[in-house]
Amino acid sequence: MRYYTTGSSLFIRGSFDAISSGDPGGIARVSCLASHFVQSDVPGADQWRESEQRVRGEGLSPELCFSLVTPLPLTGFCVFRYDRVTCFINVAPMSADGRQGPVTIILTCHELFSPGALAAGIIAVTEAKSDALREAGVKTSGSLWDGVIIASEGRPGHGQTDMKVPIDRIMREAVRYGTGVAYERNGAQNPDKRVSLFVYSNIGGGHWTEWKKAHCPYYPCHHEGQICDFCYCPLYPCNDLTLGSFVPSSNGGTVWNCSSCSLVHDPVVARHLGENPMASLSELKAVYQKKKAQ
Question: How is domain 2-201 classified at the CATH fold level?
Fold first, then answer.
C-alpha cells in the first residue's frame, strides 16, 4: 500500500478487496482508494464528476477506484497505524447546534477479509466513530457527507479473517481513538492544520504516539544527514531479505524487522520517492546503486 496527497485529493494505492459507502459503492476488487475535498456548495452530481476527473488525472480508472468526497480540506487528515490496520480519518468540528459534522474514514488492513468481514467492518467502524463523538460531547446525528471505506490487502491463499478478536478490537480502537483526535485537530480549540501520523506502540506499555520529524529524540537513527520524511516506510513490509528479516513477535508469531535498513533515508532515494510516490523497491534500489557508483 502507498498513500500520498496531490492537489485536493488523498490517494491510497494497492490491490484491495474493499467495501465503500460512497457513490458508486458496494464491494469490489479495486486498485485505488481516494478522498477528495470538494466545496460544500457543489451539487451532488458535480461532486462525483469532479471525483472521477481527479482519478483519471492520476492515470487511474474510476471503475477500479473507490472514492469519498468531503467538504473538509485534506490538511486536517490524520493517519493512525495500529499493527496491521491503517486508518485515514477526517472529522469536521461540531456545528453551532452541537451536532456532528462530516466524517470520512478509510481503513485498510493487511489481513484477507471475506465479504462478510468487510460488511462487519462498516458496522464496527461506525460504532467506534459514534462512541468517540459521544465521548467528545457531539450529537451523532450523521451527515450526508459521511463516508466509510474498509479495504483488505491480504494475499489469496493465506486464509480469510472473519472479524474476530484481535482484528475487530484493533479496528475499533484505531477508529475510536482516531476519531477523537481528528475531531480535536479540526476544532477551533486546537486548529493544527496539517496531516498527522499516529502510531500505536507496545513498547513501554500500549500507547499511541504522534510521529514528528522536528526535534526527534532518536535522530540520527541511521546516519547523519539522513532524510526522515519516510520514517514509517511506505514499502513496509517489503520482505526483501537483503534489507531485513523476520523475527519473533510478542504474540508468538513473526514480524518483519527492517530496523537496520536506511534505503528510504538516503537523501537521493528519499527525494526520488517524494517525487515518484509509486516508485517500486527495485527502482529505489537502482537509484541508490547509481548514486554509489557516481
Answer: L-amino peptidase D-ALA esterase/amidase (3.60.70)
SS3 174: helix
Report residue 69 as a C-alpha cell.
468526497
Report CA-CA distances (Å) from 41 to 70, 132, 180, 182: 11, 28, 27, 23
What does the pLDDT look like over 203-246, one tens digit per residue?
777 899 998 888 888 899 999 999 998 988 988 889 899 999 99
DSSP 113: B
Q: Which residues in the chain show pLDDT less than 50?
A: 158-159, 191
Cβ atoms of 227 and 267 within 8 Å: the answer is yes
First to last CA, the chain: 31
Measured between alpha carbons, how far is 150 from 152 in angstroms, rounded to an integer?
Answer: 7
Three-state secondary structure call for residue 47: helix
Gyration radius of the chain's alpha carbons: 19
